[in-house]
Design brief:
The chain is of the alpha+beta class and about 70 residues long. The protein is built from two helices and two strands. It has a single domain (about 1-65), classed as Winged helix-like DNA-binding domain superfamily/Winged helix DNA-binding domain (Arc Repressor Mutant, subunit A). Strand 1 and strand 2 form a beta hairpin.
Length: about 70
């Protein structure tokens, strides 16, 4: 499963695979610039969630969950 995931990430351009012709074989993986740019976006989204988490939880309790119990 790990191999499939790593190959998919390589295929999509998120990681680079470096194979060393040694015995036993050795492989390294490196993040690409594309993946690094995604990390910046993910950090921004995480900060937004942290800042708005209490509002989201309150909205769930006050609005959505109440509508489920009324129905």
């Amino acid at each position: 499963m790990l191999t499939q995931t790593l190959r998919a990430l390589e295929r999509d351009g998120f990681i680079e695979r470096i194979s060393h012709p040694e015995v036993p074989p050795r492989v390294e993986y490196r993040l690409t610039n594309l993946r690094r740019s995604l990390s910046d976006l993910a950090r921004t989204m995480e900060q937004w969630v942290v800042e708005h988490n209490s509002t989201i939880l309150m909205q769930r309790r006050l609005s959505f969950d109440r509508s489920l119990s009324d129905g």
